[in-house]
Amino acid sequence: RSVRARATRILIALAAIGALAMVWYSFATATSGSHWPTFRSVAGAAFEIVTMSQVYLPAALAAAALTLTGLIIAFRRKNLRWLAIAWLIVGFLYVIAASVDSEPWRTLLIGAWYADPYRVAAISPLLSLPLAAIGLHEFVAWSARRLRPRTFEASSPRLDVLSLGAASFLGVVALVVTPVVPFVDITDREVFVDSRFQMGDDTFLSFDKLALLERLDERTEPDARIIGNPSAGTGFGYFMSERDVYPPTWSQPSSESWHIIMNGLRDVAVDDAVCAALGESGHPQYVL
């Protein structure tokens, strides 16, 4: 019976892995491709993972040290080993995104994220922070037992309270010292440092466009459909004024009707094809 049960579990696991592989392949090949270029060597990308400095961020050495400590502890504990393995998998995917030029592997492994290193790196905190918390708890427990061995036993609830207090204190200090991490972009050997949230006349959404979007609800009816150029930031129209702005995204639609509108809207009075395309786009009453 035990052999049959083990064989059944193995078959179920293989079937689950096969199903997951099919789903992943469909996700990876359904995107527009891995068109983001590489920008690091394999060693450089691995170094960024270890120091938590992916995609031009400054190294977070203290958090990295706690994360690596938590990684070692998680590997040694069977109930936490999955967390360490997941961290290594995400790190491996970032290395692929940042440094491996093999198109088939990039499409298969990270095509679901468009091979975008920013998207892959954004997953890291979901795993690094729990590992850092484990590392911080171990460091606090080790320090407390060295300083007050009789007060703090190995499994004392006081250690949990002390670790929580230390984590809260460090979190507040981090927010006060570095409220916004600067964005560093390297282009043609020149370095530009700006806030990620800076807005100006040359940004995707400028001040005059923002003012226009914010007063849409004053100039249009609540049920009106509005069309506009998403490359000019009009995709933010619903967020700013709760109006039905089409397209609702930042990218241009790929439909034939949208191409007709984009290239021939000024000929709507004499071109029946433009009228038909407008009908397929929801009969908009306004052009933004």
Instruction: Give the biggest sheet.
Output: 3 strands, parallel
Order of helices and strands: HHHHHHHHEEHHEHEHHE
- Residue share in helices? 55-70%
Low-pLDDT residue intervals, each spanning 5 or more residues: 186-192
Question: What does the average pLDDT come to?
Answer: 84
Distance between the termini: 70 Å
Number of helices: 13
Strand content: 5-15%
Let me know the number of strands.
5
Shape category: extended
Q: From the alpha-carbon coordinates, what is the Rg to the nearest angstrom?
A: 26 Å
The secondary structure category is mainly alpha
What strand line-up does the widest sheet have? 4-3-5
Overview of the structural elements:
The protein contains 13 helices and five strands. It has helices at 2-29, 42-51, 61-76, 81-99, 103-110, 117-121, 124-147, 157-177, 207-214, 216-219, 237-241, 256-264, 272-280, and strands spanning 183-187, 190-194, 225-227, 244-246, 286-287. It has a three-stranded parallel beta sheet with strand order 4-3-5, with no helix packed on it. β3, α11 and β4 (244-246) form a beta-alpha-beta unit. The chain starts with a helix and ends with a strand. Mean pLDDT is 84; it is low at 186-192.
